[in-house]
Amino acid sequence: MQLKILSKRTLLIATLSGIIFFTVLLLIFILKNSTKNSFISSIENVVTFSEQKQKCSDSQFCLKIPSIKIDAPIKYIGLATDGTMGVPKNPTEVALFSLGPRPGENGTAVIAGHYGWKNSTPAVFDNLYKLQKGDKISVKNEKGVITNFVVREIKIYSKDEAVPDVFNSSDLKAHLNLITCTGIWNKEEKTRSERLVVFTDKE
What we know:
The protein contains 2 helices and 8 strands; from the N terminus they run H-E-E-E-E-E-E-H-E-E. The protein starts with a helix and ends with a strand. An 8-stranded mixed barrel has the order 1-2-3-4-7-8-6-5. It is α+β, with helices and mostly antiparallel strands. The protein has 2 domains: 1-54; 57-202, Sortase (Sortase, Chain: A, Beta Barrel), CATH 2.40.260.10.
């Protein structure tokens, strides 16, 4: 009789242990997926917010690159304190070098934008490196007039390298060059080691 009672108790304990173990596993699974979905939702919200901020109105001066889904307002920027071209403050905006021509005018217009913004926030030129020769780029001015450009080549320079060909041309034609950072992040200098430049020609 005692053996039978012990067997029943052992079976009951094993059954309860199994139920508790299964319940714990189920709770862990639910919490894990809930956290994962929350994280994914947060990322999607950041991307959606960034994309919404990039959309241009009809009256804005805008850069449009359909192949990498860029529709960004263009601001004006001059020289930084170190004598180099400045950069926009907002990661979703691009900046036209104000000391050069406007896109479509003879000469070389230069537009800068950010890559790899802090806290993993999407930046306007994160996908600039994906452009290829022949891709289309357009600039819409405040009156709605669109000027089209075609990618000629893409080059990468050291951040301290002299790049006169980025800002100047000798053929008296209209060009638009896009520039952003790339390479390794330097914490002390708060910049990346290289510059990526997309050279384009007016159609």
